[in-house]
Specification:
This protein is of the alpha/beta class. About 20% of the residues lie in helices and about 25% in strands.
């Protein structure tokens, strides 16, 4: 299995528009962060996308992704779903709707915000997607791959993380209940959000993320959804435990 970080930035990305800070002015490619998304490629050649944010088109072209078999939605905030219209290219190539999986809160938001996609219509060329509601109570199958949903909270918003085999991916969380933490036992690779060093009201901070990782004890953990407030990559990376890496756009992990 191959995990590729397509984007590792927060909702504004990095650099932030009109920000003169040292992170936003950095020339290090690891400090250039598109909005958060990831691609899981199975050994059978199945491509599962996690989130489909506003940089989706750019990410697909940069990675040269020729097909998508399923999309897992963590939640329906714009930085995680605003690329939905661009699935039209895959509809055309694959000649079928794209399967999207998420909890009822996220999918209801998609139906509301993208009504032109999900209402009955005869207009040719619109995006085509089939929505599948999933619950953290049960695993489900996406494109022939078993996926275990992990419930978390993004302040007051219920969101989902996902475990695929030995990989767990959770972003935008600031709380995971003990029973959901149990689902993370034994993972080799864990991805978790770490917005900044200081406490935040709806995302894990770096110290909080490291505490969760210490509880789970994966073989290796990767931090994502980083803001410019987290600091320069080359400075942050030296403060982390040996088994924790600050992810960056384009980073590929073979599991």
């Amino acid at each position: 299995m191959i995990l590729t970080f397509l984007g590792t930035g927060t909702s504004q990305g990095v650099p932030v528009i009109a920000c003169p800070c040292k992170v936003c002015r950095s020339s290090d490619y690891r400090d250039k962060r598109l909005r958060t998304s990831a691609l899981v490629e199975t050994d059978q050649g199945t491509n599962i996308l996690i989130d489909i944010g506003p940089d989706f088109r750019q990410q697909m072209l940069r990675k040269q992704v020729l097909h998508i078999d399923a999309v897992l939605i963590t939640h329906a905030h714009r930085d995680h779903v605003a690329g939905l219209d661009d699935i039209r290219a895959y509809n055309y190539v694959q000649r079928q709707p794209l399967d999207l999986f998420g909890n009822d809160v996220a999918l209801n938001a998609l139906r509301r915000d993208y009504g032109y996609i999900f209402s009955k219509h005869e207009y040719p060329g619109l995006p085509e997607a089939t929505l599948h509601t999933v619950s953290s109570d049960n695993p489900f199958v996406a494109a022939g791959v078993e996926v275990l949903p992990i419930a978390a909270m993004h302040k007051d918003l219920p969101i989902l993380g996902y475990r695929i085999g030995n990989v767990a991916y959770i972003t935008d969380a600031n709380y995971i209940a003990p029973e959901e933490m149990e689902k993370l036992k034994g993972v080799k690779v864990m991805v978790l959000n770490a917005l900044r060093v200081e406490h935040h009201w709806s995302h894990y901070s770096l110290p909080e993320a490291l505490e969760v990782i210490a509880q789970v004890q994966p073989e290796h953990a990767y931090l994502t959804h980083a803001s410019h407030e987290l600091g320069l990559y080359d400075e942050v990376i030296h403060t982390l435990p040996e088994q924790v890496t600050l992810a960056y756009d384009g980073l590929t992990v073979v599991i």
